[in-house]
Amino acid sequence: MALVDMASELTGSVPKLDYDFAKTLVNRAWADIRRKNLWSFQLFEANWISPDISNAGTVTTTQGLTTVVFDATASASIAVLQALPGPFPTPLLQRQFRIGAASTIYNIWGYSILAGVVTLTLDRPYVEASGSGQAYMIYQCYYPAPMIDWLTWMSVRDMTNFNDLNIYATRAAIDHKDPQRSIFYIPTDVATYQQDFNPNSPTYRFTLFELWGQPVYSLPYQLYGIRRGTALVSDTDVLPVAVGEDVVMEGAKIKAYEWAEGNKGDMPRASGSDFRFLIGNSKAEYERLIKSYRKDDRERVDNWFTTRRPGEGRWGSGVANGYFNSIANVANPGASW
């Protein structure tokens, strides 16, 4: 049953209920269900790939400006980078810029090409001393969540170096270890950074994460996590198979009946209806249905946690599942638990 069908049914159940408001109530009920339990459709698998560093040529910087001008060699390298298909390697507007290995890190917010010369726009004014012919670095240390409704990580794995990254790291802890962000190594930590505030970025408003030690060469990462889930927007949007429309409808009816009870004075034709009784019936049916759907979905959720248990390996008590890495020629049979 699509959103349009659920909203239409709701307007038929409650006199004078506006259709657009009915869609809002359906989505509120749907949001309650997503928050009430962990569902299989909230579990996700995704990837990051760290891009190779770009540092060909030189740049000219001016203190106080948000722009950086590239020489011909650097401009040519950026043009090649921009011609590559996304999302892998990472688009230029999701990478970072800095002069040297121990200077301020800037987010790249835009760029322009005029007569073959590239000018980058940074997220804030350049604060170091002005200079020309300077060596620079464009790489990625901040990575966006795979989706805007990201909630939490289960694990982030460096698949090349058989390494489970520490997903519980904080920026404060990384600041203590490496305040200048001058360590470039195999990444070991993932820490929440900030929201992507660049309106030109393909991941605008997504949560960003710092990957430390900072990777400057290509590495693949396997991501497992939990998402919040999204609202039904289009009239044709439908629910995931793990949840039936009947439980969403009962939740929406509770809200619609509460609205009707509070507005009885404005609805003479409905003044005789006992919406309090209907609220009670819908609440009982809602609780029965959600327990049933949760029970049916529980095995799928448990399977994710038993096969992708967070905290194993480097940061936990041991390796749960066996592995063999052909690059490092390292193997482990795994451990029972």
Describe this structure in words.
- It is a single chain.
- It is built from 6 helices and 16 strands.
- It has helices spanning 3-13, 19-36, 72-83, 171-177, 245-262, 275-307, and strands at residues 43-50, 59-61, 67-70, 96-98, 106-114, 117-122, 131-134, 137-139, 142-144, 150-158, 163-164, 189-195, 207-212, 219-227, 323-325, 330-332.
- The longest helix is centred in the last third of the chain and has 33 residues, at 275-307.
- The relative contact order is 0.18.
- Mean pLDDT is 88; it is low at 310-320.
Task: Write a brief caption for the model.
This protein is an alpha+beta fold and 337 residues long. Helices cover 29% and strands 24% of the residues.
Key features?
seven-stranded antiparallel sheet, 16 strands, 29% helix, four-stranded antiparallel sheet, alpha+beta, elongated, 337 residues
Helix content, binned percent: 25-40%
Determine the structural class based on helices, strands and strand pairing.
alpha+beta
> Reading side by side through the largest sheet, how are the strands ordered?
7-2-3-6-5-4-8
Count of distinct strands: 16
What is the rounded Rg? 26 Å
